[in-house]
TrEMBL record:
Highest taxon of source: Bacteria
PANTHER family referenced in this protein's UniProt entry, alphabetically: 2-OXOISOVALERATE DEHYDROGENASE SUBUNIT ALPHA, MITOCHONDRIAL (PTHR43380:SF1)
Protein name listed in UniProt: Pyruvate dehydrogenase E1 component subunit alpha
EC numbers on record: 1.2.4.1
Cited function: The pyruvate dehydrogenase complex catalyzes the overall conversion of pyruvate to acetyl-CoA and CO(2). It contains multiple copies of three enzymatic components: pyruvate dehydrogenase (E1), dihydrolipoamide acetyltransferase (E2) and lipoamide dehydrogenase (E3).
High-level lineage: Bacteria, Pseudomonadati, Pseudomonadota, Betaproteobacteria, Burkholderiales
Stored NCBIfam families: PDH_E1_alph_x (TIGR03181)
Any one biological process term the GO annotation gives: branched-chain amino acid catabolic process
Record-linked InterPro entries: Alpha-ketoacid_DH_E1_comp, DH_E1, PdhA/BkdA, THDP-binding
Record-level Gene Ontology MF annotations: pyruvate dehydrogenase (acetyl-transferring) activity
Cofactor: thiamine diphosphate
Gene: pdhA
Keywords for the protein's UniProt record, in alphabetical order: Oxidoreductase, Pyruvate, Thiamine pyrophosphate
Amino acid sequence: MDTVARFEIGFTRYLSAQGTASPDLPPFARDPAALLPLYRAMVLTRQFDLKAIAMQRTGQIGTFASALGQEAIGVGVASAMLPDDVLVPSYRDHAAQFVRGVTMTESLLYWGGDERGSGFAAAPHDFGNCVPIGTQVGHGAGVAYAFQLRGQPRVAVTIVGDGGTSKGDFYEGMNMAGAWHVPLVIVVNNNQWAISMPRSKQTAAQTLAQKAIAAGIPGEQVDGNDVIAVRHRVGEAIARARAGGGPTLIEAVTYRLGDHTTADDASRYRDDAAVKAAWAQEPIARLRDYLAAQGAWDAGREEALIRECQQAVAAAVDAYLALPPPDTGAMFDCLYATLPAALEAQRDMARQYEVGQANQPGAHHG
Ligand SMILES: Cc1ncc(C[n+]2csc(CCOP(=O)(O)OP(=O)(O)O)c2C)c(N)n1
Ligand SMILES: [Mg+2]
């Protein structure tokens, strides 16, 4: 048999788990001071996650999906984008959203079940959170196709989970992006789990990056716990897409250190030892160690940063709690261009139960 094609999957890491850097750092990362905003964004996300989980536990928001351990993916991806690019996220991408200018208050509104949490003042073209697994890849391909048709030098960036790559939507979206040669970057957050389903049981493929090969587009892996690698490789893919070079798939290898969401208890299906081992790889400590070794960080600055982030989170929570409730009709407004009659009836009924509504059924003393 002759060989008609040959493929390879590359892997990029600059920052080791011990916080040492390889000598060939990309230009943006050569000045440690330039890495401080990335570090801050990761720390802020972690502080936000802690608070959001506490808020779910006390009934102030609904179910919440933490990004614990995966902060480098969101921060690396979003910091490689231009403001005019469009982020098409999953539900675990608030690290990326915050870098894009989405506020923590908007994120809390989303998790509080409020429609106002799906529109972002500072990133008006970015998509809202996508909960159906993998469908955002098709949305991203469509956005990128629109950019191509309009001749705009913009790039769509979508983030999908490892589990999402087992879905038809993923293959279909990626296939169209390849066939149309559109400016789309697909980032796979391979956090090793799709709720309780481990990566090993989701696919027989050796890497998730190689799924790109079938779509005729470049696929590669990066260490998803190395913010420098994520930012650099995603940046290269974005630059290529912007220049007309078509889509790329980047698999960022990381680990979901927390539960799937606040509705999950991961201790029921996974080993403490594996989680402990994964903590030794996590993204924030390695960048902190690197910055400290460069003389760009110390305990005093760490303490001040944590305090500053906690204050920013607290202010966002205050703003969230102070907002008057949305209009009762709002939850129906964004569903259809024209609301079907059955939902119209539900909306009318919901209005009758509005707090403060004089003719509320059950408001006998009104
Ligand atoms: C179409 C669809 N099927 C099933 C679900 C239920 N579900 C929610 S999260 C999840 C696992 C997703 O895993 P992964 O893509 O790896 O993302 P992660 O949660 O790890 O970020 C599933 C199956 C869903 N939301 N959408
Ligand atoms: Mg996953």
